[in-house]
């Protein structure tokens, strides 16, 4: 458990966010969307959209039609990619809030596929606890490199379908 809030309950409220979550954050959502499309080409093929972000989590969305497999369900690689990108995007927001610039790479990850996804889907990446962000910021400023452990999920009809744990490394840029 990464925080004191109940993730399943939070997921429902996160899923219902609009693009104007937190008002001024809209510009950052658009900036992130453009950055993902420019720097990570698979995001275009997934038809990924940056759905929302607030103090608890980030949501990325993708349509089933462009990510379907032979069985008519979401392709596992697309699910994994969306979750990995949700973690990358959360790391990007943490960097933005720290007023730092860095290169974000994934070091390690694991996905558990609990049930097929049969409709358009969203990946929710939960914001790490404040203590982890403080430690991350301190390590990055001191050693020019830091790790961030992140968790994300995909739900369908309020039922958990895929879980993700990822470790991202950020290298500080001058």
From TrEMBL:
SUPFAM superfamilies recorded: Thioesterase/thiol ester dehydrase-isomerase (SSF54637)
- Which chain positions lie within coiled-coil regions? none
Ranges for domain Thioesterase putative come to: 30-171
Q: Which InterPro entries match?
A: HotDog_dom_sf, YiiD_C
Signal peptide range in chain numbering? none
Query: Which NCBIfam families does its entry note?
Result: yiiD_Cterm (TIGR02447)
Protein name, entry field: Thioesterase putative domain-containing protein
Q: Which organism is it from?
A: Dictyobacter vulcani
């Amino acid at each position: 458990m990464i925080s004191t809030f109940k993730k399943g309950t939070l997921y429902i409220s996160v899923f219902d966010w609009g693009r104007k979550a937190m008002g001024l954050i809209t510009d950052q959502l658009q900036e992130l969307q453009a950055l993902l499309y420019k720097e990570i080409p698979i995001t275009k093929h997934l038809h990924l959209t940056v759905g929302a972000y607030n103090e608890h989590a980030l949501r990325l969305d993708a349509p089933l039609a462009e990510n379907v497999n032979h069985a008519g369900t979401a392709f596992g690689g697309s699910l994994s990619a969306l979750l990995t990108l949700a973690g990358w995007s959360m790391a990007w927001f943490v960097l933005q809030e720290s007023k730092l610039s860095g290169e974000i790479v994934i070091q390690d990850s694991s996905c558990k596929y609990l049930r097929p996804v049969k409709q358009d889907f969203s990946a929710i990446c939960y914001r790490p606890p404040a203590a982890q962000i403080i430690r991350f910021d301190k390590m990055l400023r001191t050693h020019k490199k830091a790790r961030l452990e992140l968790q994300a999920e995909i739900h369908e009809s309020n039922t958990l379908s895929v879980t993700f744990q990822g470790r991202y490394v950020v290298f500080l840029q001058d």
